[in-house]
Amino acid sequence: MTSPSQANQAYWDGDAASYHAEHPDYLSSFYWCPEMLHEDQAHLLGDVSDSSVLEIGCGSAPCTEWLLTRARFATGVDISRGMLNHAAGALPLTQADALSLPYATESFDAAFSAFGAFPFLANIDVALQEGSRVLKPGGRFVLSVTHPMRWIFPDDPTNLTADISYFDRAYLEQDRDGNLTYAEFHRTIADWFQALQGKGPFLIEDIIEPEWPQGLSTTWGQWSPERGEIFPGTIIFVCRNSR
User: Measuring CA to CA, which of 47, 66, 75, 185 is 20 to 30 A from 115?
Assistant: First the structure.
């Protein structure tokens, strides 16, 4: 049986070229979300000038590339070779699953994920424990994902009618033989709290719900000016490693 990791690795390998062709602006620098919140504005990682930073689910690593000129050291990891092949040359990147990070314990001062890896993992607890393990005690962990509210709306940026249960926690695609070809997982607000802090290894310091910026006309999957004007599309958790 194909695992979610295997299915999503194959999916993103196959979709990498079209994804980059469709989203050149978003992939041009360190943006936390489709609302185009830039780290240079948000400073969610804080002062990284003397920090080693890990990006989990880096894709083609525009965020890591941006950090390399600002942090003491930055690196990224992603499961998809197809996505990594679109990265700028000579970036220090690794192909690996977020469920088993190939780094020593307490290797990094900060870690983050900007819409990478975590929405596609069935076992979020293992991934968060891995993130905590490779972080130094008290290290910063920042995670941006699709806002849980968006799950109840279809993947059509013009549709404002909710018709999917907020408590349905998985979207799976299979081929004719029943093999998994794509997997995405939903967490409610309570699920995220429990995974990160309630039973998880982090302390949540802040939660950010970026507003849709005036003048942004992007229409993309779950995101559009029409939706952004009414309800959030992204949630960002700013945390500290409690180890």
Answer: 47
